[in-house]
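Following up on my earlier thread - several people asked me to post the actual chain instead of describing it. Fair enough. Here it is, all 409 residues.
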Amino acid sequence: MKKLKVIELFAGVGGFRLGLEATDKFKVVWSNQWEPSTKTQHASLVYEARFGKSNHSNTDISEVPIDTIPDADILVGGFPCQDYSVATTLQNSKGLIGKKGVLWWSIHRILSEKKNPPKYLFLENVDRLLKSPSTQRGRDFAIMLKSLDDLGYAVEWRVINAADYGMPQRRRRIFFIGYHKSTLPFKTLKNAKANDWIFKLSTISHAFPITSTNSKINSFKITDDLVALSENFNVGEQLSPFQNTGYFIDGSVHTTKTTAVYDGKRVVLGDILEKEPVEEEFYIPESDYPKWEYLKGAKKEVRKAKSGFTYNYSEGSMIFPDALDNASRTIITGEGGKSPSRFKHVIQTSKGLRRLTPKEVERLNMFPENHTALNGISNTKRVFFMGNALVVGVVQKIGKSLFDKIHSS
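Reply from S.P.:
Thanks for posting it. Predicted structure:
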């Protein structure tokens, strides 16, 4: 069976590509990775070293001419979480522009300007997207759904914690799949009952089974144009109307809260550790133990702001050192480096306390061994990449399910 052609945006070091191509059902035909804040394009260098320079673009995606992007079946990417509000242009009150530099509108531009836009979308973001911004809970997601609806796509979404399905890291992310109205899955979705689609028929539920939390499916319309949505959606409400699972088609949202169903093998932090001995730089000097213990411990203290204002500060304690018999906590971009930190992982070994190595952090995201190891790329930078990456196993399972959905509809 022919492989589906993929455009990979915001490619980082290639997590989407690894997951999709591992199924042997997808082929990336064009990729883009651009980091605006650094002169050296470290992630792009790693990407090119692993997958080759051919058909890879290291240019600001908002400036890439649309006619240089090849046609593909599916567009994928983990785009940054930003402020998605829109505004009318001065010349045309109906014309819309997203805020400059907001990368969602680069996806939108490709979908709206390509003669043959991809029929399917597979995107990822942080789960707070469902309730951003705090002043208009859910507005950003509503803008995104409506902008895709305007372009002829239906969307299904789910917040997935990789560890709920036996993977080695507690990493919660929202994944969503778009189906163009010209596709059979779109027509299947249009004719399905909400309950059947969410729990039995959807691409993501096939990959990651769920059960209801006894909350009913909430349905509502999003019919405003993007400007009105941007200004008025959910104003004054405390909660987002979007739950962790749902779909949107022809202006109608159907959403409910679900929980994971899984009773298979579970990989825990202890399973992914390198055999000792590990390089000396990862061991914490005993003289630093008190600093780590303070940062990880519970606090109730009076603190003083730069303005001179004093306030009561409190936070709970964290497990220290990290438990080896559970999936790891979420890897963040600041995981690397020697300085003591509340959020970095610390494990107990026979030689004392140490931090995680880049290879171990790669394993927590289910990347191949030393995927980010490259001359000129520091250990701190390697771990930074993984703080931005996704869990490859999640992409692989959803990708296989999407391929099956496309070919069975």
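Residues 89-96 have pLDDT under 50 and may be disordered. That should answer part of your original question.
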